[in-house]
Specification:
- The chain is of the alpha+beta class and 265 residues long.
- It folds into two domains: 10-105, no CATH class; 111-262, no CATH class.
- The chain is built from eight helices and eight strands, in the order βββαβαββαββααααα.
- The longest helix has 17 residues, at 232-248.
- This is Aminotransferase class I and II.
- Keywords: Aminotransferase, Transferase.
- One of its GO terms (molecular function) is transaminase activity.
- Residues 17-255 form the HipA-like kinase domain.
Length: 265
């Protein structure tokens, strides 16, 4: 099996266009020095670099599994950026986000996915719910689908709430073996009939070396946590080991998905 190498580009943010006030992280529409527009996620917002790490890992794992994700780029914010911004809250956010942030390519004209309007086929729904159970994504519900329709295709966005074990960081091994009961609220649960059938296929797409490559994408700067007992590389290793353990025990969450589906009937 050929494994394509993952490479993320780095851009410099040149223009802050407007805040996107969905959720608590206050992302923004911004332009970069490659003349493309991006949805910019800030290290100075809400959960800080942990949300960026989750966004990066969740997005690139999804892409590796063959799901549609807007291009992710590292986005550099110069210290002079945003000084002319009139809104004090936004100015503070920009000030606290100098350095390396994360951005998603802006899908101009995309529509929010509505399960009433669009039916997702069973295999795709099963792949998406498998992904979300793997990365412990609590944020793809009917209220907030975090999916877009763009050029008649389904695109996944917003993985900043995944890997929530890293907010407490206690027993990560226990978290990795979790059945993930929150999957009962997943917007695609009714269509996800083939989770058991695609389990082996999905596991095979995430060999150890691919998980290592994905966790190696995390900038060391994002892993220097204030007050942490571990150094940056030890923290990176936990993310890697968490993913290996969770993939190896995917039957735990596959059964949870099946049980949740039975309760729908």
């Amino acid at each position: 099996m050929t494994i394509n190498k993952i490479e993320l580009r780095t851009v410099n943010v040149t223009r802050y266009i407007t805040p996107l006030r969905e959720g608590g992280s206050l992302p923004a529409l911004a332009e970069a020095d490659d003349d493309f527009k991006y949805v910019l996620k800030f290290r100075g917002a809400g959960h800080g670099v942990k949300a960026l790490i989750a966004e990066l890992l969740g997005g690139e794992i999804a892409r590796t599994l063959g799901l549609q994700i807007p291009e992710l780029v590292f986005a550099n914010l110069d210290e002079a950026f945003g000084r002319s911004e009139g809104d004090e809250e936004i100015q503070d956010l920009l000030k606290g986000s100098q350095g390396l942030n994360l951005a998603l390519h802006f899908l101009s004209g995309a529509l929010t996915f509505d399960p009433v309007v669009t039916t997702v086929d069973e295999k795709l729904a099963s792949k998406i719910i498998w992904l979300d159970a793997l990365i412990t994504n609590i944020d793809r519900t009917v209220k907030n689908t975090n999916m877009l329709i763009w050029h008649k295709e389904l695109w996944l966005i917003d993985h900043g709430a995944t890997f929530y074990f890293h907010h407490s960081w206690g027993d990560w091994q226990k978290a990795a073996l979790s059945t993930f009961p929150y999957i009962k609220d997943h917007v695609l649960l009714p269509q996800a009939t083939l989770v058991e059938e695609i389990n082996s296929e999905m596991m095979a797409l995430l060999p150890d070396e691919k998980l290592r490559e994905i966790t190696n994408l995390i900038p060391t700067d994002w892993l220097n946590w204030e007050g942490a007992e571990m150094n940056a590389e030890e923290i990176r290793e936990v993310y890697y080991q968490f993913l290996v353990l969770r993939r190896n025990n995917s039957n735990n969450f596959v059964k949870q998905i099946q049980d949740a589906r039975e309760k729908l009937v």
